[in-house]
Amino acid sequence: MSDFTDLPDLAVRTLGGGVVAANDELFAERENLIRPTAAVYQPHTFGHKGQIYDGWETRRRREPGHDWAIVRLGVPGVVRGVVVDTAWFVGNYPEHCTVEGAAVTGYPSPEELADADWVELVPKSALKGDTRNLFTVDSTKRFTHVRLNIFPDGGVARLRVHGEAVPDPALFDGVPLDLAAMENGGVITGCSNMFFGGPANLLLPGKARTMGEGWETARRRDDGNEWVEVRLAEEGVVRQVEIDTTHFVGNAPGWFRLSSGDLELIPRTRLQPDTRHLFVVEVPTPVRNIRVDTYPDGGFGRLRVYGALTPEGQARLTQRYTDSQH
């Protein structure tokens, strides 16, 4: 990874994140903070509260204090960096911010979160307007929630919380497991091309609602092919693979192949457009990484790699979880 922004955004709505509380959102709703798309702006579009912004915006403070919003991470994990994006906020962005994290079990209410043990992730730092303000986080602790504090008030378009997913291994005991899912710790480690859509979309939960929510490459004009590589949540034996080309009608790959290094899990196999494909894997060898080759190009919406962790994989996953509690 070249920097922390290459890591998954643990807070994004499409991964299950939610803005569970904010002290004020008079001008623009708090939920905009975790929308997956970049913020947009249309000048001279006024509602009954003023100019409409694609972000979170509080009223002008007339008393001491600051504003805040609490985000439940879609997947708990170790936070490596935060982006406080003030896109389009020029005369109304906050001067400073801090970011805190909390690790809370279960499903706490906003009132319970107020009494949580909050840890500073980003100290009080200056912000620039209409800018992706990047802050590296130095912590190995697992968090379930983050709190964005802005000083004294103003607007923030997006909050990105990049890091490494650390799921609770107790949730995997005796249940079917998607070894590639981002929420379980799967991560994209490389791809040949992502002209129309990023490969991280493949590992998101749920079904892609449009073609734009998948991975799509440019059209190839040579004899090569496209590929994407995934590091699984941990070592496991793959038993079934899903390649979902739903919504890809005229631009699905013609074929695909699944491998792990020199090990072939599924040979080159025909794919159909706009179809959810399921394939049985009969190779019992445990793997930690996989590669999907698509021929010659195109895109698909979701990749599922169902299987079972090896005892060694389960032990390492449990150790990572234990280490992140301290």
TrEMBL record:
Catalysed reaction, written as an equation: allantoate + H2O = (S)-ureidoglycolate + urea
Keyword Hydrolase recorded: yes
Example GO molecular function: allantoicase activity
EC number: 3.5.3.4
InterPro entries: Allantoicase, Allantoicase_dom, Galactose-bd-like_sf
Keywords: Hydrolase, Purine metabolism
Domain Allantoicase span(s) in chain numbering: 16-165, 185-308
Transmembrane segments: none
Similarity-based family: Belongs to the allantoicase family.
PANTHER family: ALLANTOICASE, INACTIVE ALLANTOICASE-RELATED
Protein name from the UniProt record: Probable allantoicase
Organism: Actinokineospora alba
Organism placement in taxonomy: Bacteria, Bacillati, Actinomycetota, Actinomycetes, Pseudonocardiales
Gene that this sequence comes from: alc
